[in-house]
Amino acid sequence: MKKNLCLFLLLILNYEVVLSQDNKENPIIYLDVLLGGGGNQEVSGINFGTSINYQSNTNLFTYRMQYVSEKKEDPNFLEAILVIPYFLGGDSLNEYALLYGKRFIFNGHALSVSAGLSTNLIKYSKTDNDDIVLKRDNYLAIPFEINFHFFKTIKRRYRMFYRLISIGKSTGFGRSIGVKLYGSFGKFNYVGLGLNFGLGWHKVY
Hints:
single chain; mainly beta; 8-stranded antiparallel beta barrel; elongated
């Protein structure tokens, strides 16, 4: 997930330089990072995710990775204090998905609906005759998501450190925030809801 974010930032910074030199229209391309909650009967808890999105006309193409993690039954003191490790290493669901959908832009906000195909790996424990059995399953599923997010309406200089410092020239590149309803239908259905934080070009400026 960190590698994808770093690569995305390098690509868009380089592309921003090309756009500013040639005065071309920007593409609609952005990265989202998800923090939410959800799951299914086998695994439920905190959800992490990231997705790269590209829009052409109203067509939206998305590659997403998501991780559903259940809290540990017996965390140590450090895991409980730091919170995040408390949700790592237990029952989990990993998803890698390609989605296609429609995205409609209304000046400073947008609504999108997408579905596609994913490969999923679930690891969970079940009680069988008073014994705890660890199970693991790979399967294909149909992922879906509904997004609603807000972003800037006009080109502005990019701001850092709680918007105190502005850098560079006016640009369409910026942040977004929104809500995502997501999940998948397959051997193990799951559903979740979370906050989405975006970075990129969210419309043609």
